[in-house]
Write the structure tokens for this entry.
Amino acid sequence: MAASYVDSTTFYNHSRFLLLLYLFKETEQHFFSEKKLEDRVTMADNPSKSISQNTNTHRVILFPLPFQGHMNPMIQLANILHSRGFTISILYHQYNSPDPSKYPHFSFHLIPGGLSEDQLDKDEPLSAILLINTDCIKPTRDCLGKLLSTHNDTACIIMDANLFSSQAVVEGLGIPRLVLRTSSVCSFLAFATLPVLRENGFYSDDLDSRGEDPVLELPPLRVKDVQAIHVRSLDFTLKIISNIVEGTKTASGLIFNTIQDLEEPYLANFHEPFRVPTFLIGPFHKFFSAASSSLLTQDRSSVSWLDIQKPGSVLYVSFGSAATIDGESLREMTRGLASSMQPFLWVVRPGLVQGSEWLESLPNEFMEVVSQRGYIVKWAPQQEVLSHPAVGGFWTHSGWNSILESICEGVPMICSSFFGDQKVNSRYVTDAWKLGIKLEHVFKREEIESAIRKIMLDKEGQEIRERALCWKEKIDVSLKTDGSSSQSLNALSDLISSFKSSGA
């Protein structure tokens, strides 16, 4: 009996040991699995922590246009490429310069003698673009040449497509040049078609009588949409745009912050004039947020205010970083917002109202309305605001970044437009994709009130919201492993790697 007892005890202890070993290994495996997942999340939230994971020794130099709507996508693209293992260097002007401390995983290189604050007329974007492309060629080439001489691992440079002088900058330096277009394919196609539209009489003097006529070459655009593109003079506009288009055609590749499914019907017309490798890898902000690259300080109290609002009840109003309105438009906005009886979060950027510092132009009675069901900030964390459950609509200036961010969160839009590609963008949103309603730039209280109530309360607004949510799902699919944006990003990474491998 004693021997039998000892054997049973030994067997029991041995079995207990094996069970504990098994549980330990399961726990260990689970722990390291969770740890790997945690590391991946940390790397996405803070790309600087992924530096040690980089296995690609190729460097990519990026050169953004120094305006927020262009800077944000370029910095996001830099983060995307860094996550793919590329080493990143950023060229920048003193004007609207990024904060290098926010991106310790990048190297930054100031262009000495480049663009400065007092050189720009901020009310004329095309004039600013021309200045950057004419007066800054030599300092940019000198800075780039110095960078290349110290970094022989550079595969290519990616420049904003509006930097049409970039071909002249890189000539003789022996480096491939890709361009980033921060607008939609549709709007870029409209810009590229302007000379043809001029020949076809779309810039004649009878705009008032033909404004609503369709542009048969570019459905669903109307004559007034393409008429609105030019500033100062048509000849000046066509000269700048022609340079941008021709500069794009000579690039080694073209990158868009957009989604293939959204613009599929227009890609065939696009590929005919632009016979360069094209990569639709958006939306960039779904890979990396634009929050850290904002040139304006974000007021996070806007999110706290949203936290106490009812789901889907708030209209978010923001006209971006560059648009301006006059005093009369401001007054009509306040009247429309007040009479709509809807809660609203309104971004009143300093400089938004012509001749006003900030809120001093707002009527006193409107401030009483704000205290009851409105909230005003100088700038908001837009991506976080649009994803908030309390937000049910977005009154936007129709900048491409804002449109993408709204579609990604399934938020229906009220589209106003001010300059550049914004009228074209708003036409596609309202007439092609049917994700919003259009509000003309000449603001009237009754029209504003009607648009707000329609998008927030009426059946039409609900139908738009349902379509927007369907597009949100399509975008999520495009970002998965087999999705169109993910595959296009793989192709872009392969192209960049091939430059260095082939000795280009």
